[in-house]
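FAQ: What does a ligand-bound record look like?

Like this one, built around inosine-5'-diphosphate:
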Amino acid sequence: MKQRTLAIIKPDAVRKNVVGEIIAQITQAGFKVLACKMTSLSAAQSGKFYEVHKERPFYGELCDFMSSGAIVPIALEKENAVEDYRALIGSTDPAEAAEGTIRKRFAGSKAENAVHGSDSPENAANEIAFFFTESEIVANNA
Ligand code: IDP
Ligand code: MG
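The answer part, i.e. the structure of the complex:
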């Protein structure tokens, strides 16, 4: 069954000018882009997006980083999208990520790790709704 997930190209990767290469790797892996835009978040908006991590020691650093520049959220669709996209990006820490994964290729550190990926279909739905309305996704794919 088709499933959705949310990717975000993070500010470090936008600064490195590798947005195109990352999207190419995602689409070559069989994902369909349902919606995509370049935008940016305030620290407060980043805090809301990453609210599940608010007790973690790196929360402040994460919010500062995610609001430090432009980001590219992308709603994706594929069979088994959540798990397959997590496999495509690799481990949170690029030092531990498998060869050829997006984080291995483009991430500089565990904090500034190039891309986000949803961790469950339920969170994917909420995260997609954070950036895109359902009607714009439908309109984009009519
Ligand atoms: P994930 O992005 O692989 O799902 P999470 O544990 O959900 O990893 O953490 C969310 C984000 O928080 C990471 O992608 C990374 O940017 C940042 N992060 C995670 N662990 C650390 C850490 O130990 N130090 C600094 N930043 C971290
Ligand atoms: Mg996560």
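Follow-up question: can I read anything off the structure? Yes, for example: The first strand starts at residue 2 and ends at 9.
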